[in-house]
Description:
The protein has helices at residues 6-14, 39-62, 68-81, 93-109, 114-133, 137-146, 156-161, 163-169, 175-180, 192-196, 214-235, 237-241, 246-254, 276-282, 286-298, 303-316, 320-331, 338-352, 367-372, 385-388, 391-400, 405-416, 420-432, 444-455, 494-503, and strands at 2-3, 36-37, 152-153, 183-187, 201-203, 206-210. The protein has 508 residues and is mostly helical. The strands form 2 sheets. Strands 3-4-6-5 form a 4-stranded antiparallel beta sheet. Helix 2 (39-62) packs antiparallel against helix 3, helix 4 packs across helix 13 and helix 17 runs antiparallel to helix 18 (338-352). 37% of the residues are buried.
Amino acid sequence: MEFSSRARQRHARLAGDRREQYPHSxxxxxxxxxxxxxxxxxxxxxxxxxxxxxxxxxxxxxxVRSSDAYKAKLEAELRKLKFPYRALAEDDxxxxxxxxxxxxxxxxxxxxxxxxRRWFLQQxxxxxxxxxxxxxxxxxxxxxxxxxxxxxxxxxxxKNQLANELIASTPGFTLPKVKEQMFYKVGLADAVDLxxxxxxxxxxxxxxxxxxxxDVIVLNNYRTKLSKALALTARSLxxxxxxxxxxxxxNHLSHSYVGPDYSIQKNTGKIxxxxxxxLSVKSFPLCMRQLHRALRESHHLRHGGxxxxxLFLKGIGLTLEQALEFWKKEFIRGKVDADKFDKGYxxxxxxxxxxxxKRTDYTPYSCMKIIMSNPPSQGDYHGxxxxxxxxxxxxxxxQSYKIPPSGIAQVLELVKGMHYQLACQKYFELTHDxxxxxxxxxxxxxxxxxxxKLLNGGRExxxxxxxxxxxxxKNNSQESINSSSTPASSNEKAxxxxxxxxxxxTED
Length: 508
């Protein structure tokens, strides 16, 4: 893709909007876009698609994919973010253009590691499956022709001749259904999944696939093409990384957080140091609860833990003076004397609050930042317990926190599927005794805020924390923070911020 000013972009639009590029609302994304767009539009498109894919991931775990609730919620998100959806199947150039460009931007961002490629591939597959199945039969046929998947439909004579075999080999089919359903003659290599599941009739190296099962063939074809494309894109990364405009944006997107900006402290001074132990049990996400417990037990955290936990505490409302007192009291209980703390560690804390060095006000880590960067090593306690802990150790930890066995099994199943943020959402539900969290969890500070709202009946944290342990249901006035909130575009500064901060946290 090329990039230019908005004036050049408008000129390109006037010269022709390239409607012929998108003859169908759905595509395999075989040809990259070639038009010029601004960096602002580049980032905007990418963030919107990332929001959409996160919703796809969340819905895929929370609902049956073919259910009405799943379809309704996903269509609502497509409408809101202005991507192609069922009602626009015939013609909507702007939505198709955004769909095309945003896919290729995220492909660049998410080809950089095996984990990123796997996540991107799964969400794109689920999105494609929904959109394909929402097409009318006529539009499905047009799409198959568009992507050169025009399988040969068998004639009525052959269908009548094979009727008994088709009934026996195709689950749920009766003679009337066979007569009314169109069957396609598909090469066995394209119908391996259907063959393995014993859902099609096989003869002479061909599978006889009913029209209602053709989506399996299309999805397999799409998966193969997209998987190869991601591998090829990864090989071309060195040339992309040399572009000083693109690389920071792509790195930010692959670790992106698309919720509220928690660098803005709304509750400064409302949390007392005496409350932190109780808050860590009631309202801290598992990652921060783990760090707090390790700090209390060993009276020290290595630099990765100090950065992750320190910025979280800043985000929930600790002032600079409180932070200095909190860390100093704990460290001098260990092997660090007061003089060493004042000369070394105190400077790094002031730096994180924007009072030293570049005077940058640093941003608390998002879930994606914690999951995707700086994995913990021996002796470290930072990172995401759902991503970085051994499943057996995670199970033991959840048991020690009195999580019921059925809940632990649900969490571990989500972890097995690499749905780490959804596992954290389930942990929230289990520890707060609610059935549905009601929002997409993307940030440790969001976890804390939502927990406090729930515990305080929808209000912000109070000066005195209620230690009674009584949980209250959300009232109607509560506004849940979710992934559709205003994008934290300011987070593009986060990676450059942390480069400076890490230098001050390297002393163990």
